[in-house]
Structures
1.
Amino acid sequence: MKIATYRELQSKEELLPLFQHAFWWPFNPTVFDRTIRADSRLKDSPVGYAALIDKQVAGFVGVMDIQTRTLHEAEETVGGIWGVVTHPVHARKGIFKALMQRSHDYFREQGYRFSFLYTSKILIAHAFYRKLGYNDTVVYSSAYKTIEDMKNAARKPGKRSKIDWDKLSELYTRVTGNSTGFVIRDKQYRRMLVTRKKIQPAKCIVTDKGYALLRENEGNTYVRELMALTREEINELILHVEEKTAKTVIDEKVVDKDTLSTYQSRGYKIMREGYDVLMSKQLSDATFTETYGHRFHATSVDSF
Ligand SMILES: CC(C)(COP(=O)(O)OP(=O)(O)OC[C@H]1O[C@@H](n2cnc3c(N)ncnc32)[C@H](O)[C@@H]1OP(=O)(O)O)[C@@H](O)C(=O)NCCC(=O)NCCS
C-alpha cells in the first residue's frame, strides 16, 4: 500500500463512489477544488491522504488546519480530520489506522497540539477513534418539532433578501466573546456558509439581538446556528423559525443550555447527548482542559 496526498492523486474521481456511499456526497473534484481555494482550513493543507493499492484509491482520510481560540485568548492552529472512509473491498486491512497515523504525523510536523473530528456515537468508527486516543469533547443534544401548519405550507417564499453579514459578525463576536474553540472566522467564512453549508440567506433571520442561520428542504427547516444576546431573543427567534416552517424544525446540534431549555419549553422533542459528537486527541503534553477549559464552542456550521 502507498500513501499519497489528495493533491498528488492522479484520478480524484475515484473518491466519488467512496464519498457517495459513506456520506451521500456526490463528490466532484472540480467543484471541490473551488472549495479548497475558498476554505482557509483547507487551502494550505495536503487536503487529505489516500491509500493506494494497485494504483487504485482504497481509502481516504482528510486533513484540515483550523484556527481556535484558547483560554488565554491566544490563537492556536489545530488539526481537523474529515472524510474518513475505506473501500469495502479493502476493509479491515489496517488502511484507516495507517491513514490516521499519517494524518497525525502531518499535524505533529506542523506543531499542532490537538486533533479534532466529528462523528456519531452510533458509528463503529467512534470506537476506533477511542482506540486511537480520541475522547468525546462536545456531545450534542438535538431538538425536533413537527409543525404541519397548512398556512405555513401555503405561504409563498419571500423576496430574495440579503443577510446583514456585518450585524451577524458583530452578534457572533459578542455571544462568543468568552468562549474558546472554533470561534475564529475570517471574511471568507460567510462564503463557505453559503457554498458548503448550504445556508440560504433568504431564509435566515437577523435581528438586533440575535440571528438564526437556516436551511430549508422540502418544508423542513434545519437550524444550523442560532445565536442570541438574551434568552427572550432565543425564544423570539425559535418562534420566528416555526412561523416560516411548513413541516418540521430540526436543530441537530444545540450548543447551549438556554437554547435547549427554550426548545423544551416550546414543546420540542429533545434527544439528549445522543447522536453527534466532537472528539479530540492530544498530540503533545498539553491537556485539552488546560488549553480550552470548559467553554469550547462549535456549532453545526463549524462541523467538517
Ligand atoms: C471506519 C472505517 C473507515 C474503518 O476502516 P478500515 O480500514 O476497515 O479500518 P482498519 O482496518 O484500519 O481497522 C481499525 C480497527 O478497527 C477494527 N475494525 C475495522 N472494521 C471492523 C468491524 N467491521 N468490526 C469490528 N472491528 C473492526 C480493526 O480490527 C482495527 O482494530 P485493531 O486496532 O484492534 O486491529 C470503515 O469501516 C468505513 O469506511 N466506514 C464507513 C465510513 C465511516 O463510518 N467513516 C467514519 C465517519 S466519522
2.
Amino acid sequence: MRDMNVRASTLPGFAQSANVRRLTEAEKAQYARDGYVKNLPVFSEDGVAELQALYRDMAARMPDDIDVNKVNNWHKASARVFDVCRTPAILDYVEDVIGPDIMQWGCQLFVKHPGDGSVVPWHQDAQYWPLNPHRTVTVWLAVFDTDAENGAMRLVSGSHHEGDFRHETNDAQNLVLDQEVPEPLIDYGRVVSMDMKAGEMSLHDDGLLHGSLPNTSDRMRVGFTMRFCPPNVKCDLDVWPNFETYVARGEDRLLLNPRGFVPSGERHPVRRFQHSSEFAG
Ligand SMILES: O=C(O)CCC(=O)C(=O)O
C-alpha cells in the first residue's frame, strides 16, 4: 500500500555540492564522543543561491508581528521546505548517525539579523522535548556563512555524556528560548564555534549543551534546522498534542506517533506547535 506520509520530491531539488559524501569512520566516532560533526558539504554555489532565495521567501511570508525564530514545523506547511528536508546528502549524513529508518518531526529557522541582539541561551534540546528515548539528531544547515562574528552556534563538546544540566527560566526579550543553563556551569575550555560556509551543515546530539551570541557583524546569519529521529522515539502527546512524524527515509514499523499530512502548497507556521491539517488546502 502506498504510504501517504511519504512523498517523492515533486521538485528538481537544489543543486548538491560535488563534494557530498558519507560520514567517515572518524566523524562517526566524533559524533559518539563529542556529540557533533560539522562542515559537511550539502549544496553547491547554485544550490546555496536557491536555498537563500527560499529563506527570503519564507521570511517574507511571516506576518510582521510574528518572530520567525518562534515558529516551528515549516516542513508541515511548505512543500518546498518539505523537499529540502529530503535532500539525499542530508539524509545520508543523518542515516550514518541514526540508521536507515529516519523520521522527521521538526524544522525551524534560527535567524540573526546584523545587530538584532538575539541570543540563544545555553540549553540542552532534550530538556525541552517530551521525547523518549533521547535519540533526536539536529541538522543545522548554514544558509549564509557563519562564524563567531555573526553569532555562529557554539556548543560544549562532550557535554551530552554529562546528564541533565539545571535550566533556569529567563524571560529576557532578546532570548530566543526562555530556559537557560547558568553560565558558571559552562566549561569554556570545551566550547566549539560551529563556523561553516553557506551550504554546509552540522549534526548535533539532543543532549549537547549549545547556544549562540548576538550577530555583531553586518552579515545575515541563518540556521535552517531539521529534527530527525529513529522510529523508536515516542512523544508524550499530553505535553505536545500536535506532535507528528514523517517518514523521511526507510520505514516506520513501530507507528508509535501520529503521522502528519504531507504539504502540497506554500504556507507558513504562525506558532511553535501546529497540526499539519491546519495547512491543508
Ligand atoms: O542557531 C542557534 O543559535 C541555536 C540552534 C539551536 O538551538 C538548535 O538547533 O537546537
